[in-house]
Fold:
Amino acid sequence: MEAFTPRKIVQELDTYIIGQHKAKRMVAIALRNRWRRRQVPEELRDEIAPKNIIMIGPTGVGKTEIARRLAKLAQSPFLKVEASKFTEVGYVGRDVESMIRDLLEIGITMVREEEYEKLRPKAAELAEERLLDILLPKRSHPKVRRLQAPSPQYEASGDIEIAQRTREKFKKMLRNGRLDDREVEIETQVSAFPVVEVFSPQGMEEMDINLKDMFSNIFPGKTKRRRVKVPDAMRMLVEEELGKLVDQDKVVQLAKERVEQTGIIFVDELDKIAGSYATHGPDVSREGVQRDLLPIIEGSTVSTKHGVIRTDHILFIAAGAFHVSKPSDLIPELQGRFPLRAELSALTREDFVRILTEPRNALVRQYEELLKTEGVTIEFGDDAIQEIAALAEEVNERAENIGARRLHTIMEKLLEEISFEAPDMQGVTVHVTREMVRQRLEDIVKSDDLSRYIL
Structure:
């Protein structure tokens, strides 16, 4: 993270997300402050708390994407949760502490994959030797020894030298792929735990996992012999060797540290547990969810099956449209836990044009590459892109404003016929023009009823 200054973080976010410069600057500073905190003297380090952020804006303007790309950039454990899925302690459903347990599992998976990548070359060497042992079994059977009856001198010199040459020859053939069609018999570890589904109520997933862990310890694994092709055998043996090489206790310890120091939790739909949402209808526990969130966001300890996790330095980024309610409708204590507010603006026609063409994963490029797999070349004219953006803006104004997600709907409807016929259009080049866009979509856009249901 030392190389990622706030300016560079914003530049990196710009390659995927159009506009919303204020929100990008705010999250870039928050991410940089995490690196700065690690550099300050140790006695002050624990006193510096992360400044949590609320992103306010309509759906489809980039709130989730900013948080997701930020976590990927920082290589931090990242979890997206929806506030409306949680319930107050005492109600049936998921409790807020489950988000910390889920984040830890994500951190463990992330660290384990990193350890696997470091040890994969060594595991491949060990797996290769095991596979060669299977392909070239040692002549140790008594019947073989009686039939051949080699002299001790030959056994000590010539036979060993021939075996080594043969082994080297097979190693070259294995690496060159000349043995890929051969089948071998290998032993694999299988669980002896009986296949029993534990149907636990919603919110009791932790108990489900603990029960399965307990039963897996009671029923130890056993081996099973299988005949597979050499490439499949190599892959299975590499995974088995990786499992032996990786220190699982070390993985858990590193993951706990990474989650506590660099974890990011994105709490979406925060507005659904505030204001009128919290006081009407069956969701009587919504204000209780806010109270349960308080200690976790402020900093507390959460028990998991891997030990205790402190939440003091986990960064929380909340988001909500706040159409019906306002951030001030949240309970005052929770408002204080989110000192930074970033307002994201609604997208304009110019933004839609840029979203279609500029990002690294631009929507136009996605469809070009998808249809290229069928041998169809599709070319979008500038006038067509302008027309698509104009239609997206018009439908968003007349119907519900769903931001950039409207582009997905319009593009899919526009290219529906081409996508259906593509397997029979190999070698064809399709030019998407403004007239084609109007012809395919004009009738739907004009009719309020049709646009509401189709676009």
Notes: The two ends are 42 Å apart (CA to CA). The longest helix spans residues 98-135. Residues 140-154, 196-203 have pLDDT under 50 and may be disordered. The longest strand covers residues 183-190.
